[in-house]
Amino acid sequence: MSQSPNSTSPADDSGTKTAAYAMFGLLLVAYILMSADRYLMSALGVAIQKTLSFSDQERGTLATIFTLGLGIGGLPAGWMIAKSSRKTVMIAGILIFSAATYYLTAAPSFSSMFAALVIQGFGMAMLATSMFALAGSYFSKNRVAALGAVNVCFGLGAVVAGKINPVLLAHYETSIGKELSWQPTIQSYAIFGVVLAVLIALIVRPWFSETRAATQQTADVGGADSVKNRNTMLLAVMSVCYGLTVYGFIGTYVSYLIHDLQYDRHDAINMLAWFGYGSLLSIFGGMLGDRLSSKAVIIGSSLGVAVMGYFLYLPELDANQRLALCFAFGIFGPAILYTNLAGAHIKSMRRSLSRVGSSMFVTTLYAGGASGGFLISYIADQSSWINASRFQLTLLPLLCAVLALGLRQDQMSK
């Protein structure tokens, strides 16, 4: 009996669980790198703005526009996985990401930097879609918890960015001057990316990256055969709303603290590190999704995001209050809501179609995220930061909670 190139039988698997976890760990390191890079445009936005004379709205747009590439790349990445292999798509995505990251430092204008960030996001979509599909397939008995492990890297990325970026900036400020220190800082991430792509090519084995064994051994019960179903459509709208919320925050909060509240740069960047610490609880957020209904978890976490978002941009808060809010926002947002939106997308499809569910999640979440920085900056410019945050960080999560009432748990895959 013949097997497809992308499948393996248990008898053929030469690897062990230890080796599988080690390879998964290497892939997670790559995801941490890309997640840390997400925060560069927010942390370096003021310096880049001064160097290239961008407006405040242009700075806000660049802070999150890479998510446009993520949104564009989600569905094509799913198609590429079906036609080739997850490992190939991952490596190609990291190399595209690294090349675009390096070009950012040579981009002479807003439009060229805009294009480079979109291409960077497309590369990340290839890695993210592959990672979500792999986690949902290899760890199928605990799919949402496995997705939580992937999302822990989102939190670690924020922590790494909060700790390493100031060190890199300080080093290069000493050697080449403050105004240009952002360029080699960005280049460092591009170089790290190439190194990781080489390591993945040498170390990750097809029996792990292309596994279908877990889904073959579990009955393909429940879930839809196509994206044209009630659950997926509702989840798509919720993902767009959450993307607008979280990337509005990520893209502008550091710049808001520095530019409007005169925070020290190191202290402002540290706020995102605490957001990242909250995200580190993603595995526990995933466990909630494996034990409770997706509807209940999404509703509860959406309400939590709305409450935290109501207070985050208040100017009268002291530093400790902001740290606590950022930490709680990281728990309710990335750790619980993001993880369970991803899990619900995958559960809305049959187990054998996990790549389709992960593609839909990546596409819709980051399509919303692409406009997050621009929208909140535009509303703040027309009104105030408080009004902008109350629309984008409170009203939109409340809409997610209302939409989640329409989810049908009995129509999701088991």
Written overview of the protein:
The protein has helices spanning 17-38, 40-43, 45-52, 56-64, 66-83, 86-104, 110-138, 143-176, 182-203, 206-209, 213-217, 230-259, 265-279, 282-291, 294-312, 319-347, 354-369, 372-382, 385-404. It is mainly α and 414 residues long. The radius of gyration is 20 Å and the shape is globular. The model is unreliable at 1-15 and 213-217 (pLDDT under 50).
Largest sheet, described in full? Answer: none
Could you name the ranges where pLDDT drops below 50 across 5 or more consecutive residues?
1-15, 213-217
- If helices are DSSP runs of H or I spanning 4 or more residues, what is the number of helices? 19
Shape by Cα distribution: globular
**End-to-end C-alpha gap:** 28 Å
Total count of strands: 0
Mean pLDDT, all residues? 82
Our Rg estimate from Cα atoms comes to 20 Å
Strand content: under 5%
Order of helices and strands: HHHHHHHHHHHHHHHHHHH
Q: Please bin the fraction of helical residues.
A: over 70%
Structural class: mainly alpha
Q: Main attributes?
A:
414 residues; mainly alpha; 78% helix
Summarize the structure.
78% of the residues lie in helices and 0% in strands. It has 19 helices and no strands.
